[in-house]
């Protein structure tokens, strides 16, 4: 064998060794991320979803991806999650898409819409009905990715200091209610505000607001809202609120493919688990509500009020569609999916419950 052949063999062997060493080093490289949440450190189950997600990622990656979860009391920006993930201060966030409607109106329907999709319908739309593609289309200009982060299911309509019998009873009230529902309520004469979760009770106690909606009995009862506003109304505005995981796109693309898959799988598992946990919490709370909290007065909004809400809802939706092509695309997609899926929802859930209650 001539010298050239020996040199070529040596180079090939060296390259193979170097390649194996590089591959081995990549496999052992530890990535450290930070995740910021809108929620306080004890706000279960919302804060539990990102914590469980981080634990699953670390276990499934054999410690190659470690994610520190920072509650809102640490970063002090409960409603600044999108900006922090977009800017790279945090690789990930856990929040709710409709909080960003002031920055980008297209984010609004990706959480939930009044009289819209239920939780199973919403998740089916996202993963199998074109929702994922539309969601990433919305967040692409922000250089972030958005995935479902856990659903609260159908939320309650809120806590009120006084009983609501007519539309006029709503006028002049100050209410914490986010998202599109807030715009509907504003059209009906309320002064609407969005307040971070940790400030809700204090705002109600001090009279800064007269009413608020939060989630459902599993989360609401522990907040003590009933001590100030005992009228508790059933829902209409958030039939399937979906929280969100936000990911800095640049950081995600730097991960090896296997870690990307682990992140996506863990988000899906944590989101589903949060829905189950919240459902259980509400079932437990509701089972004891009459005995333990006799002052709470469970109400449903009168037909006059519901009809007014539905009317304004349709008017505002059409106005938004006319102004924004992408928002129209999202709303049309959700409406079409709801029309299709609702027939099965009615057969599988409503008629079963109707005949067996």
TrEMBL record:
Na(+) binds at residue 214. One of its GO terms (molecular function) is metal ion binding. Pfam families: DctP (PF03480). One of its GO terms (cellular component) is tripartite ATP-independent periplasmic transporter complex. Keywords: Metal-binding, Signal. Gene3D superfamilies: Bacterial extracellular solute-binding protein, family 7 (3.40.190.170), Periplasmic binding protein-like II (3.40.190.10). GO terms for biological process: transmembrane transport. This is ABC transporter substrate-binding protein. It comes from Arcobacter arenosus.
């Amino acid at each position: 064998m001539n010298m050239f052949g020996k040199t070529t063999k040596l180079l090939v062997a060296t390259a193979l060794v170097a390649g194996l060493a590089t591959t081995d080093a990549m496999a052992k490289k530890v990535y450290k991320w930070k995740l910021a949440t809108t929620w306080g450190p004890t706000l279960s189950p919302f804060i539990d979803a990102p914590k469980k997600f981080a634990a699953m990622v670390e276990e499934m990656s054999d410690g190659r991806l470690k994610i520190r979860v920072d509650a809102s009391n640490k970063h002090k920006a409960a409603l600044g999650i999108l900006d922090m993930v977009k800017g790279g201060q945090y690789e990930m966030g856990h929040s709710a898409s409709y909080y960003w409607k002031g920055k980008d109106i297209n984010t609004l329907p990706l959480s939930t819409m009044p009289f819209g999709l239920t939780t199973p319908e919403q998740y089916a739309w996202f993963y199998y009905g074109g929702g994922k593609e539309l969601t990433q289309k919305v967040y692409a200009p922000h250089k972030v990715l958005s995935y479902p982060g856990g659903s609260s299911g159908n939320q309650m309509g809120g806590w009120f200091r006084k009983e609501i019998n007519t539309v006029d009873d709503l006028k002049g009230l100050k209410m914490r209610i986010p998202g599109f529902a807030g715009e509907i309520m504003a059209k009906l004469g309320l002064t609407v505000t969005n307040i971070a979760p940790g400030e809700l009770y204090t705002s109600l106690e001090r009279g800064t607001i007269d009413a608020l909606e939060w989630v459902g009995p599993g989360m609401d009862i522990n907040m003590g809202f009933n001590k100030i506003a005992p009228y508790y109304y059933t829902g209409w505005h958030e039939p399937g609120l979906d929280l969100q995981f936000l990911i800095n796109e640049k950081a995600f693309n730097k991960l090896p493919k296997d870690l990307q898959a682990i992140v996506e799988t863990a988000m899906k598992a944590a989101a589903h688990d949060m829905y189950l946990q919240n459902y259980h919490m509400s079932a437990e709370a509701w089972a004891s509500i009459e005995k333990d909290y006799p002052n709470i007065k469970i109400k449903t909004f009168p037909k006059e009020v519901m009809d007014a809400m539905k009317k304004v809802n349709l008017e505002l939706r059409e106005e938004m569609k006319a102004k924004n092509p992408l928002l129209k695309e999202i709303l049309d997609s959700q409406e079409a999916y709801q029309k299709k899926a609702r027939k099965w929802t009615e057969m599988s859930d409503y008629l079963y419950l109707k005949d067996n209650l």
